[in-house]
């Protein structure tokens, strides 16, 4: 049925040849069908925020721009969550640290990568006061810990408390 013709090819130029008239007719039919399918497939609330487009390709581009803005806000909220996380001393510290690591990996899908060193420092900042000696111990060492090393040291420190 060539429903995706409008997405794969540009509109043929108009000439007097019958062959091009058939191609233009197929392209316009594909465009109408695609627009109808896309508009019926999205929620009514979203449909109201979209401008009336005559081209299915332009309609998709407009939808893409709308969601790009949402990706920015999602990335921003993930980053805020990571920065504001605090370990309260309740629960399993290993799970808490893995959750922080998981949030950092989600940021990668938004092309925002935090280095492992930065994550280690964010974890240390998020630890409560009774980890004070542990933090001082890390900061006085020349070596940097990987996230896995930090997790094992934190688990040992939690068990010590």
Task: Summarize this structure briefly.
The chain is mostly helical. It is built from 8 helices and no strands.
Describe this structure as you would to a colleague.
The chain has 161 residues and is an all-alpha fold. It is 70% helix and 0% strand. The protein has eight helices and no strands. Helix 4 (56-84) runs antiparallel to helix 5 (93-108) and helix 5 (93-108) packs antiparallel against helix 8. The longest helix is centred in the middle third of the chain and has 29 residues, at 56-84. The chain is rod-shaped. The N and C termini lie far apart (69 Å). 11% of the residues are buried.
The helix count comes to: 8
Helix fraction bin: over 70%
Alpha-carbon distance between the termini?
Answer: 69 Å
Per DSSP E runs of 2 or more residues, the count of β-strands stands at 0
Which residue ranges are poorly predicted, with pLDDT under 50 across at least 5 consecutive positions? none
Task: Please report which band the strand proportion falls in: under 5%, 5-15%, 15-25%, 25-35%, 35-45% or over 45%.
Answer: under 5%
From the alpha carbons, calculate the radius of gyration and give it in angstroms.
27 Å
**What is the oligomeric state here?**
single chain
SSE order, as H and E?
Answer: HHHHHHHH
Taking all residues together, what is the mean pLDDT?
A: 84
Net shape: rod-shaped
Sketch the major β-sheet. Answer: none
Give the class from helix and strand content and strand pairing: mainly alpha
